[in-house]
Amino acid sequence: MTQHPHKPYCVKCEFRIRSILSDLDAYALETLDATKAYYVYKKGQVILSEGIPPTGLFCIHKGKVKVYKTGDDGREKIMRLAKNGDVIGYRSLLTGGPSTVSAAALEESTVCCIPQETFFKLLRADGEFSMRIIDLLTGELGRAEEEIVHLAQRPVRERLAEALIVLKETYGTEEGDNSVLSVQLTREELAGMVGTAVETLVRTIAEFKKEHLITTEKKKIRLLDLPALLRIGNIRD
Fold first, then answer.
1. Burial of 77 by CB count in 10 Å (0-12 exposed, 13-18 middle, 19+ buried)?
2. Count of CB atoms within 10 A of residue 148's CB?
3. Tens-place pLDDT, residues 76-93
4. For the domain that residue 160 is a member of, what is the CATH number?
5. Are residues 66 and 126 in the same domain?
6. pTM of the prediction?
7. Which residues constitute the domain of residue 186?
């Protein structure tokens, strides 16, 4: 992690319009710019550590980030994926306790850090901002409840198909080739997202390749039959 000398201005940020900061007034945006720090994280570098209180609210300016928990066996379980305009660390800031998750860059990512004091000033002064945070928390709770059901009842094939669709919807595809996912995950990371052992993931990927659903080259994944993946994942197109 390195602190970037030229931090972007929130008012000019192209990704702010789809973030929880979209409706802040000019004064609030000026306050953010005056107090925030701006960091560059290389691929694999940790932004937020489980068990350690966050220093502020992290807003992803540009990049791809995984949010995960580490089990007793040392394996990662990816809880969600974050992209340009998303924020992480808000839950622990609100509870005042240590972070319940970790976050790390999947590729070189630039991240703004809004200090805790500024975050709480915004909450007190702006009701719309407070409601957006509440929406994030309720959405997070809903996803957690769904995940419990998915892991208990859904086969690995279904979860892998869904994970591939989620990756496509979250990060899109490579420019000039709309079938190749634009994010590259290790086998361990993809297994952590699906919620299975690496060995099981490898076998299931081999099945998908044999059925001409996907192909792989190094860490790149090409989706060959999107309608079939949607059906396997029980996802409505």
1. middle
2. 9
3. 888 889 999 999 998 888
4. 1.10.10.10
5. yes
6. 0.83
7. 155-232
